[in-house]
Amino acid sequence: MLRLPSFTYLEPRTLGDALKMKADAGPAGAYVSGGTDLYPNMKRRQQEPRVVISLMGVRDLTGAGKGELGNVIPAGVTLSALASSRALRDSYSAVATAAELVSTPLLRNMGTLGGNLCLDTRCNYYDQSYEWRKAIDFCMKKDGAICWVAPSSPRCWAVSSSDVAPVAVAIGAELELAGPGGERVVPAARFYHNDGINYLTKHADEILVRVRLPAPGGWDAAYHKLRRRGAFDFPVLGVAAWVSWERGTRNAALGTVRDARIVLGGVASYPQEIPEAGAALRGTSLDDDAIHAAAEAAFRPSKPMDNTDFDLSWRKQMTRVYVRRALQELRERPAR
To answer: Who's near 197: CB < 8 A, 6+ residues apart?
Structure first.
């Protein structure tokens, strides 16, 4: 049985207290919300903080008492709350869908929006016990010097496996961060690096406080996820599709596509936007030819690595299928 190492557990009640505790702990400290990512990593000795600072009691992060969710969502809101929110289902259905597809109900009850957006990158050579990783002389992401997925590579190729992140990038969400130097706002697309180790632009001492969603109206988004089982598993491919309509409608039959974005998850170390796929949809009515062109455009740069589930060539082929499905869903949705 894998066991947690010894650590000091702190429970701040305010954002300021949390930032001070992290400053006092320095590199030995780590923030935690639901713990569905950090604690398994600690059991495998992938992360070894000596001080763990819980954010679950910080009201600024949980939004306690604020009622139904709107377009500014506290980062500590659970994935279950996102998935069950009627307001979110109506105006931001792709966000609710992505949250609902994360893992299992028990873990969604603990996991948070901020935690999923900051989810550690994953790899078959990394997400193993300490003894297993030691037997291969570890890997570049933790304790070793070689990326076993691409041994000649100077960088780590662990993949981004967040479900909510591709949607946040696709719809143009903004992330509010708080740190010792104050607060700043970062577009979701600039929150990630294409690097398996340094995969976030967030500084280690910063806290993701809130997520700003764009005002509803004139656009829509969908999210589709490929995994082996219908629950629990991380995505080996995620497709977030976003379109905005020329006439401010939300139905392809009533207008043409003014702008579009296709973002892939599970194929790189960051949520990967495919600009060519979005360009293929602009000025169209989301007809079959346009959807086919976008799917082909997304297929070409999709380069999944052999470090997660399923055969990588088959996963690449599935890029076409899942982009097509996401766009067809948007085309078929009734105007609201």
So the answer is: 121, 140, 141, 155, 156, 158
Distance (Å, rounded) from C-alpha 23 to C-alpha 19?
Answer: 6
Domain with CATH 3.30.465.10 in the chain: 57-212
Confidence at residue 242, expressed as pLDDT on a 0 to 100 scale: 98
Burial group, residue 221, by CB count within 10 angstroms (0-12, 13-18, 19+): buried
Domain 57-212 CATH assignment equals 3.30.465.10 = yes
CA–CA separation, 254 and 237 (whole Å): 31
List the chain residues with pLDDT less than 50.
Answer: 65
The two three-digit tokens of residue 69, written as one number: 């969710």
Question: Which residues of the chain form CATH 3.30.390.50?
Answer: 219-332
Q: Tell me the β-bridge partners of 10.
A: 53
pTM of the model: 0.95
3-class DSSP state for residue 179? strand
170's tokens: 């696709």
* pLDDT reported for residue 1: 80
CA distances to 38, 55, 116, 174, 320 from 33, rounded to whole Å, are 9, 5, 10, 20, 36
For residue 5, give the 3-state DSSP assignment: coil
Report CA Rg, the chain: 20
Q: Are strands 51-54 and 72-74 parallel, antiparallel or unpaired?
A: unpaired
C-alpha–C-alpha distance, residues 65 and 62, integer Å: 9
CA 214 to chain centre: 17
Signed CA dihedral, 116, 121, 123, 128: sign only = negative
**Which residues lie closer than 8 Å to 94 by C-beta, 6 or more apart?**
167, 170, 171, 220, 221, 222, 223, 240, 242
Q: Please tell me the predicted confidence (pLDDT) of residue 254.
A: 57
**Residue whose tokens read 């001492």:** 205
CA angle at residue 215 from 34 to 113, to 5 degrees? Answer: 5
Return d(Cα 312, Cα 213) in angstroms, integer: 33
Given a contact cutoff of 8 angstroms between Cβ atoms, the answer to whether 143 and 125 are in contact is no
Tell me the two tokens of residue 123.
């790899």
**CATH class of the region 219-332:** alpha beta
